[in-house]
Description:
about 280 residues, alpha/beta, 6-stranded mixed β-sheet, 6 helices, about 30% strand, globular
Amino acid sequence: MNLTTGALPGDSQKVARLRVAAVQMVSTPRVDENLRVAAGLIADAVAQGAELVALPEYFPIMGMTDGDKVAVRESDGRGPIQDFLSATALAHRIWLIGGSLPLWSRHADKVLNSSLAYNPQGEQVARYDKIHLFGFRQGSESYDESATIEAGRQVVAFATPFGRIGLSICYDLRFPELYRAFGVTDLLVIPAAFTETTGRAHWEILLRARAIENQCYVLAVAQGGRHENGRETHGNSMLVDPWGNIIDRKLKGPGIVIGDLERGRLDEVRDSLPALAHRVM
């Protein structure tokens, strides 16, 4: 897998602090309704000082069937969902990460499950297509993302004035080798729609592990509640610091997780326990 990334001047140019927010949602099958809800929650986050805001996986649609997302898929760079993200980033002058939305794939009956990042000028600066596709079966509960999603192939990180940000989506969280492939990052943004069953068992543990082992912040932004299609998502969006401490969290329902990334905290953790420098494999 290749790594795509933006470039910035050296560390001396980086800002010391960045206020970030995760927007937790309980998305419906209706795109217009979800965009209105997202717009309101983003505005709330900006009113609290957020400079970077992230939305959850499937923020524009949680359909009644898995095929519903195929019907609203967009070409990269064009479509009402991407127009919304670009215009919202520009209007608020923020970094905005559209957790995931359906884009055209090579297959007529599938989508790419893609996370798009926009800068404060409303320009798309990164796109990550979900690599690991969720499969689960336990009793009557089962999921097979490969039936309607084409897997991505490329690891993606991008540069901001605070530092490097790595993108991943939901099931990717279970694969630590993906996060090692980023190299040193300052923030991992992980939008998700974890099921209640798997989320209750593993979500928090995995998030804190990714923060600790990569000595970086983790912004986990989730779907969180009972959806119209009957699916229950775990929620529990959170911001985790490089030591594994939870700075803020939202357990269930729509809302905001917010907090500050601090360059001094990253340096403190990495200097006191230089595990990244001690890697031998």
